Amino acid sequence: MMSQKRDGAVSAISHDVASVSSSPEPFIFRQFTVREIVSPKRGNVSMKELSVSTYSNDKGTSISSYHRKGFSFSLNTLLQSGQEKKMLLAPEEISCQSPTTTQSNRDDLTNKMSSCLRSRSKNFPPTKRVKVDSIVDQKVPIEERHVGKRTQNKQNVQKLHWKYICIISLIPVIILLGISFHIFREGSSKVTWNANDLQKVLNTKVFGQHEAISSLLNILENTINKDFEKNKEMPVILITGPSGVGKSLTSSMIASNFPSPGVSELVLPPLPPQKHIIQKCSGSGYNFIVLDSLSPNSINDSVNWVKKFLNEALWHKKPVIVVLIFNIQVWKDDVALGADDPTPETLKAKGSAVYSEFKNHGLKSLHIYFKSLTEEDLKNCIRAALQMKGLQEDHKTEKYVNVISGGIDFRREGCKRVWSRAASAVSN
Question: Which residue among 137, 148, 157, 363 is the one 20 to 30 A from 336 at the CA level?
């Protein structure tokens, strides 16, 4: 079967060569190709190729050439016992040319081509033929040969041209999208906060602390309205003061009105792992973290916790504002600082002592002191509590104010028991 195909291929080639010699029109048979792949089951793989090119010149004479190539490589596998491992010949190329193809030498050319075909059909056992012979026949005029190449090159250039046009046209679009995204991101992360309204509300709820509230809100407002990416500021604010002066109330009201997308979090002792708080924080704006009810006797633990927390926040790019609230009446040097007579001066000295020890631990912070209340501050707090209970200001209300204030040591307790006392007075 294979021999018949090869003979047919040779006959077709010989017939075309014979028909070419009588044509005066210049033309070229680009290529006649016969290919065969021989693949042994184990061992060598070989492929041979026979190509025949025939063309005629303007004098009517035809010139034919053909060549045969063969190459092989080893699969480095063992053959079955009793079979000899054979290798094909090294790569070779045989060219035969006939300058003038006439009837006398056409048969000789055909015989040579047939010989090439026969030589390429040698079997090297064990072998398996995986592809039969094939013939490629193309007839192209000589004057169009180079034109065809130029056309192909032009088509390739046009394809590349359109590719480059598409790529170049996309560059401005990508740049515009990047600029738009950057502007959108800057706009979404930029938070402005005006604390004037909050300050007015705080002054009606927390009495005697106008200066402390103003300082605290100014720090927060200036920090929030800055660009964290440029300044990298994460302030630590230390709030000290005696009991019942409005430290926790002020912080809780600020947390309730803190601008989004920031997060507000109240943390009480024992302090949890820092990563639990960081996970709740936002990366698009400042977060307000309040550590309340801290004891001055555990300043070392508080400082270490805050240092690690700030490092975690900076690593995760989540800006935070940390507020630490200390009750200075719970202090290890009570006797030395006059615990029996907590005057405003001794209480303020306690607050300064806590702040100094905080700085000695290497943590940069801002200090805001909530001073002790006066008797008038206490009465204003009582009036606000009675008004919340539904009592209007009259002579009866002032009577309640005097009774309640007389039973409260405002220097030690502040306004802590005012609300419960006001509720009892109204119910009676």
Answer: 363
Q: Which residues contact 329 (CB under 8 A, 6 or more apart)?
A: 242, 243, 342, 347, 350, 412
**CB-CB contact of 320 with 281 (8 Å):** yes
Backbone phi and psi for residue 354, each to the nearest 5 degrees, phi listed first: -65, -45
Residues 218 and 329 reside in one and the same domain: yes
The verdict on 294 and 397 lying in the same domain is no
Q: Which residue has the tokens 């080639």?
A: 13
Q: Using CA atoms, how far apart are residues 116 and 51, in angstroms rounded to an integer?
A: 10
356 shares its domain with 390:
no
Q: Tell me which residue range forms the domain holding 312.
A: 195-372
Indicate if the pLDDT at residue 174 is higher than 50.
yes
Q: How far apart are CA 8 and CA 292, in angstroms?
A: 100
Three-state SS for 235-261 is CEEEEEECCCCCHHHHHHHHHHCCCCC
Strand-pair partners of 52: 32, 66
353 vs 306: which has the higher pLDDT: 306
At position 305, the amino acid (one-letter code) is W
In this predicted model, what pLDDT tens digit does every residue of 188-232 receive, in sequence order? 445 678 889 999 999 999 999 999 999 999 999 998 888 777 777
Which amino acid does the sequence have at 55? Y
* Percent helix, percent strand, percent coil in the chain, to nearest 5: 50, 20, 30
Query: pLDDT confidence of 254, banded at 50, 70, 90?
Result: very high
For residue 323, give the 3-state DSSP assignment. Answer: strand
301 and 382 part of one domain: no
pLDDT tens for each residue of 52-69: 444 444 444 444 444 444
- Tell me if 29 sits within 8 A of 54, measured CB to CB: yes
Are 330 and 252 found together in one domain? yes
Closest C-alpha among 99, 94, 135 to residue 21 = 99
**Three-state DSSP class for residue 403:** helix
Identity of the amino acid at 128 = K
Do 250 and 209 meet the contact criterion of CB atoms below 8 Å apart? yes
CA separation (Å) from 93 to 48, 50, 96? 10, 10, 10
How confident is the model over 329-345, as pLDDT tens digits? 765 444 344 445 567 88
Domain count, the chain: 3
Do 225 and 173 reside in the same domain of the chain?
no
User: Do 262 and 226 sit in the same domain of this protein?
Assistant: yes
The pairing of beta strand 92-98 with beta strand 62-74: antiparallel
pLDDT in tens, 359-402: 888 888 899 999 988 889 989 988 888 888 777 777 777 888 88
